[in-house]
UniProtKB/TrEMBL annotation:
Lineage: Bacteria, Pseudomonadati, Pseudomonadota, Betaproteobacteria, Burkholderiales
PANTHER family listed in its UniProt record: CBS DOMAIN-CONTAINING PROTEIN CBSX2, CHLOROPLASTIC, CBS DOMAIN-CONTAINING PROTEIN YHCV
Alphabetical keyword list: CBS domain, Repeat
InterPro entries tied to this protein: CBS_dom, CBS_dom_sf, CBS_domain-containing
SMART domains: CBS (SM00116)
Pfam families, A to Z: CBS
Name of the protein this chain belongs to: CBS domain-containing protein
Domain named CBS: residues: 11-66, 76-134
Species name: Yanghanlia caeni
Length: 134
């Protein structure tokens, strides 16, 4: 019987975040600057949503005046899928597939943001574990 790998072993730690009031152009700039496709969205320090590059692209075609009306709260997926540290990797991947999401928020027992686990992290984990022989 193999030991189950915890999600935090392949989680992207300390992810770049934005707040509910971050403007859409700034969201896009953050994603481009840091090479990420998902941003946890916070309100009063708590993660309340996730914005994907797809969410932002939908709005980028609007006029400058229209874009100035759009904040993260308007385009985010509210109530993001959240898992705790220690959750087995296979359970997280299964949950992502069931919910059809590209990322999950990883928190510790106190509810603090530890990181974000994305489909890319899942693929990296798969490669590492297959090569390791697990």
């Amino acid at each position: 019987m193999s030991m189950r790998v915890a999600v935090e072993q392949f989680t992207t730690p300390d992810p770049i975040t934005a707040t509910v009031t971050t403007m859409v152009d700034d969201l896009w700039r953050l994603m481009e600057q840091h090479g990420v496709r998902h941003l946890p969205i916070t309100c009063d320090g708590e993660v309340v949503g996730v914005v994907s590059d797809r969410d932002v692209r939908v709005v980028l075609g609007l006029s400058a005046a229209e874009k100035m009306q759009v904040q993260a709260a308007d385009v985010m997926s509210p109530e993001p899928v959240v898992v705790k540290t220690g959750t087995p990797l296979d359970d997280v991947a299964d949950l992502m597939a069931q919910k059809k999401v590209g990322s999950v928020i990883v928190i510790d027992d106190e509810g603090n943001l530890v990181g974000i686990f994305t489909a890319t992290d899942a693929l990296n984990a798969l490669v590492a574990l297959v090569r390791k022989g697990e």
